[in-house]
Amino acid sequence: MLNEVLAVLQPALGQSYLDLTAGYAGHAGAILGLTENYKHSVLVDRDECAISHLKPFGEKGTDLIRSDFYGAALKLLECGKKFDMILMDLGVSSPQFDLKERGFSFAKDGKLDMRMDSSQDLTAEEVVNHFPKQKLVDIFVKYGEEKPKFATKVVEEILRKRPISGTIELAELIKSKTHLYQKTHPATQIFQALRIFVNDEIGELEKTLPLVPELLERGGRVAIISFHSLEDRIVKEFLKTEHARGLEARLKILNKTPIVASENEISSNLRARSAKLRAATRI
Ligand SMILES: C[S@@+](CC[C@H](N)C(=O)[O-])C[C@H]1O[C@@H](n2cnc3c(N)ncnc32)[C@H](O)[C@@H]1O
Questions:
Q1: How confident is the model at residue 182, as a pLDDT?
Q2: How high is the pLDDT of residue 181?
Q3: What's the gap between Cα 38 and its chain centre?
């Protein structure tokens, strides 16, 4: 979604940029290349591998913050910082997903980890092997949007087979509980649920969105890319609520319906098919 992000953020020479999910700098590199304002820009990520990758920007004067984005946003507000552009490209990065040791994917066998921040205590292994039955069912229903009946069947099997040692073992166990034909692997939603829970992705988003207008200069723009309906609903509701404040609104919505990836991008990057971009400008 690089072209789409550039179209809504409209980076111009000298503008300041805050990337709350900088990852491997696909967006940040392009945007900072256009603004050339490295010194008044900030790149945030909670993943230490991403932060190491971002070091060349640090050498040019960009502030690199290794933190969850809520913590980073609070810190920046306390320092009175404001930016011309803010980007939130939610979820996991392809390098996180592709490295089997990170445990995000069941395409290759890895341990059940799923932490974006490897210094965090809670892992997917702890959740799967030690959480009580009802708590697991609730996680799968709430964050995986699974039907309670299927979630319960899977959890009962998990409880029978514990300890579950790896991503493939868990994916196979989930698959064994359904006979329905599905376009995606039957474990997809439950893996998503575990990842969202382990990284408190919804809590982070809900706490951080209200801080975004305060971090924007007047006329500044924010772009938010989400990858599943739970996140997109939160972003949409937040923007709608802001808009409904009438004269007190701090943000004006730039696109009423979300922008989606082009056919071209989807054909080279399947993950992009579920991406939704919403943008707003600070009034
Ligand atoms: C989809 S990737 C971003 C990719 C990036 N825009 C690029 O072009 O390379 C999401 C990144 O955000 C980070 N991330 C996700 N949630 C976060 C949070 N709550 N706080 C800080 N970083 C987060 C992840 O570690 C990951 O590196």
A1: 74
A2: 66
A3: 24
